[in-house]
């Protein structure tokens, strides 16, 4: 029949988008402008941080991965910090000696277009950390951050500064090898 348009391709496209959209958002600890509290499972520490920035929201969303320490080195003795930064101020945090970052809590201000952070650290048992190193900046302003803690190391520090022209932060991470 001429003059009739088949809706089948349009329906197929809508279904494909509906199925793939949740997968595209899956795994993020927060939505843009949203608060989050992420905590690794017991006896695991953060081993990866992925973040992407939205210019529309002037915010980042974060995805974390966790890994167990060798021989259950990450204990269940843990504590949360208070907020480590004010809006539009530097984040400069290092866990106490022989503790590792196992959680991150953050909320966003639409007025300041910035985030505040606090961290959860857990004590490391039967190992000590030494020979720590700071990563270079892991993202450009408005860019993606994709960081993996080096093999046989733990994340112990998080540093960032904000740039109000870009309404974004650049991040660095500190990691340390575990030694017996």
TrEMBL record:
User: What name appears for this protein in its UniProt entry?
Assistant: Dermatopontin
**Which InterPro entries does the record associate with it?**
Dermatopontin
> Where does the UniProt annotation locate this protein?
Secreted
Keywords of the record, alphabetical order, are: Disulfide bond, Secreted, Signal
Record has Disulfide bond as a keyword: yes
The upper taxonomy is: Eukaryota, Metazoa, Spiralia, Lophotrochozoa, Mollusca
Q: Which domain of life is it from?
A: Eukaryota
The signal peptide, as residue positions, is 1-26
What Pfam families does this protein map onto? DERM
Chief subcellular location = secreted
User: Can you name the source organism?
Assistant: Elysia chlorotica
An annotated GO cellular component: extracellular matrix
Q: Which GO terms describe its biological process?
A: collagen fibril organization
Give the record's family classification: Belongs to the dermatopontin family.
């Amino acid at each position: 029949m001429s003059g009739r348009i088949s809706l089948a391709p349009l329906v197929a496209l809508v279904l494909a988008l509906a199925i793939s959209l949740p997968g595209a958002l899956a795994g993020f600890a927060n939505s843009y402008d949203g608060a989050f509290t992420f905590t690794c499972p017991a006896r695991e520490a953060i081993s990866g941080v992925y973040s992407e920035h939205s210019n529309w929201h002037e915010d980042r969303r974060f995805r974390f991965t966790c890994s167990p320490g060798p021989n259950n080195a990450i204990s269940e003795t843990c504590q949360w910090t208070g907020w480590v930064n004010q809006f539009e101020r530097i984040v400069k945090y290092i866990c106490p000696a022989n503790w590792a970052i196992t959680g991150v809590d953050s909320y966003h201000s639409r007025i300041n277009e910035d985030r505040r952070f606090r961290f959860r650290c857990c004590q490391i048992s039967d190992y000590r950390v030494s020979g720590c190193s700071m990563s270079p900046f892991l993202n450009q302003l408005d860019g993606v951050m994709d960081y993996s803690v080096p093999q046989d190391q733990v994340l112990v520090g998080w540093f960032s500064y904000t740039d109000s022209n870009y309404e974004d932060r650049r991040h660095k991470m500190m990691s340390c090898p575990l030694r017996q």
